[in-house]
């Protein structure tokens, strides 16, 4: 099979590795429009379960990813001058540059052609390809050419955020909430190496404009943010994008869904197919799981159409709970004033419960008491597990009906 992967992100590169391992005779090319080594995103996060899946697919690249990852097991929240710590599951971080280098090197070693500075804007540029994989991100050009067929929908989040790096190396996954005269602003910080961390900063539109961030230059904006987060950053600096990549941009998160994921011999992968809010830290994991599912489907069916249908069915089903969690997580931050004045341990506990469809409909302190009681009483815990998904389905159905 002749396969063209458009976009050189983790999902497309990992798919090329899996397909070559399944059948070395596959002719596979990854087309990336940017130069080699050019990427944006600082570090990415994932959890231990992903490593097991990667090891099953390709032990060599899984070992390299594990060796170049850092780990943490605690979460810490700074709310003004108050601090609380949560001991949780172990998380992992790896630099996006490093991850792409590992996957590209492994793909090339298996015979995949990785072509940089090669932009594909139309499937007609690839007339000989049996399969065209659109892994070209949330603004996929290939998907947009058939937007009506794919049934693409984009919901734009209310809050503004900016993706930065910092020389502060966080020991734990760190949340920091700072009150200003114009409202709260907060950051998510996690290390991805021995010298740098990712620092995503978010705030409401009122805070964003009140602080003047909407009109500040990159240098002035970073200087202001460094002053606001001086405590959690321990005086370290924030870093925007490299000069060659342009300035760091404030964005509104775009939650993207598609009614169907394939059209003829074109199939969507990763962010071209779906996005989930960054606050659940699942984007890279979901993209790699897409690659695993697509490779499995292609191996399991001799015909392309049924294989792509099986892939879409499996992944859309697997994503339902994750997309729901991401939706509620984003809404938690959009409604931060509802929770921010709780006692720190209560606030952090509800931060951990932000994926719950029940939380927005129950007074926060009452929810906290119910949640603590559920840890002790199995019947109450079962009731909470039973009720949550039903509330989520009901509310999601009402939301869809109102849009239609």
The ordered string of helix (H) and strand (E) elements is: EHEEHHEEHEEHHEEEEEHHHEEEEHHHHH
What number is the mean pLDDT? 91
Structural class: alpha/beta
Helix amount, in percent? 40-55%
Rg over alpha carbons: 22 Å
Please give the order of strands in the largest beta sheet: 3-5-4-10-11-12-9-13
Q: What would you call the shape?
A: globular
What is the number of strand segments? Answer: 16
Q: For the terminal residues, how far apart are their CA atoms?
A: 40 Å
Note the beta-strand portion.
Answer: 15-25%
Low-confidence stretches: none
Count the helices. How many?
14
Largest sheet: 8 strands, mixed
Structure, described:
By secondary structure, the chain is of the alpha/beta class. Helices cover 43% and strands 23% of the residues. The protein has 14 helices and 16 strands. It has helices at 10-22, 48-57, 59-67, 96-109, 141-144, 147-150, 205-210, 218-228, 230-233, 283-300, 304-334, 344-352, 364-376, 378-403; strands spanning 2-6, 27-31, 43-47, 70-79, 82-95, 113-115, 131-134, 153-156, 160-166, 173-180, 183-191, 197-203, 238-239, 254-257, 262-263, 266-268. The strands form 3 sheets. It has an 8-stranded mixed β-sheet. The two termini are 40 Å apart. The mean pLDDT is 91.
Features:
eight-stranded mixed sheet, 404 residues, six-stranded mixed sheet, alpha/beta
Short synopsis of the structure:
This protein has 404 residues and is α/β, with parallel strands linked by helices.
Show the helix and strand layout.
Elements: E1 2-6, H1 10-22, E2 27-31, E3 43-47, H2 48-57, H3 59-67, E4 70-79, E5 82-95, H4 96-109, E6 113-115, E7 131-134, H5 141-144, H6 147-150, E8 153-156, E9 160-166, E10 173-180, E11 183-191, E12 197-203, H7 205-210, H8 218-228, H9 230-233, E13 238-239, E14 254-257, E15 262-263, E16 266-268, H10 283-300, H11 304-334, H12 344-352, H13 364-376, H14 378-403
Parallel strand pairs: 1-2, 1-7, 2-6, 4-10, 7-16
Antiparallel strand pairs: 3-5, 4-5, 8-14, 9-12, 9-13, 10-11, 11-12, 15-16
